[in-house]
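Page 42, continued from yesterday. The earlier attempt failed because a stray header line got pasted into the input along with the sequence. Redoing it now with the clean sequence only.
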Amino acid sequence: MSGAAILALGAAFCFALALILTQFGLRTMPSWRSPLYSIGGALVVAWLAAIVFVDWRSFNLDAALIFAGVGCIFPVVVSILAVRSNERLGPAVAGAVGNVTPIFAVLGAVLFLGEHLGLLQLAGLAMVVGGVALLALRGGTGGRHWSVWVLGLPLAAALVRGAIQPAIKTGLALWPEPLAAAAIGYALSSVVIVSLVGRRALRAGPAIRSGVLWFLAVGFANGTATFLLYAALGLGSITVVAPLVALFPLMGVVMSWIFLRGERLHAIGLFGILVSVAGVILLLVGGT
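This time it went through. Structure tokens are written below.
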């Protein structure tokens, strides 16, 4: 297995872990406030690591501007959408719908980076979409019930997560420092989230300490996942990396079964996840 594949699987695990940690955090903190701490915590960790490990002598302004531009929407927009979809859908379904990320990432790579899409990859994309459609038909999991439109939250998050990958790969071609890319991106995302909810948080008063700690842990997991994703993109093609990262919903289902006894997918929902994961495998096979 290549280094890019190992890093991508590590990113998938960390994204899944963040889904589970979010459920614990939401018990003590409203969803609108949580990105302040998850993004802020990741920002501190990313910059402490970047100061030590990044070769700043090779700084490239064009790449830094790309990373900064991405940071205005990722991870801040994904964090907001992810916590809301996690709250409404639960981690298993929210993660499963996020499985469509490879569609946006792969199509972006084909359109803008000249990567090729084969027959197996087309079949895989269709299976990913079909799996999400099965989840939509089910309309609920465990004790949760939701309208089909709520699926738009994780779908929008998947669109952003997939769309930024060609941009990040372009920036890393100019300055191959994934840790710097993550640190710069989190800096801009922190500015965005503070401008959106900072004043409201001050009016609401101090947050419950346990909630802050849970979402700092979420930020650490997401920050690690972002760095591993960027590192994988620096080593391998998007058509290989994106499908592997999109395995995180299956990991999330297993973690939900272990840690969140109230979160259970019905048979149709589980079948939908299996279909979409099989599609991801086809994407991977077709991209190698």
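Notes: The mean pLDDT is 83.
Reminder to self: strip header lines before submitting.
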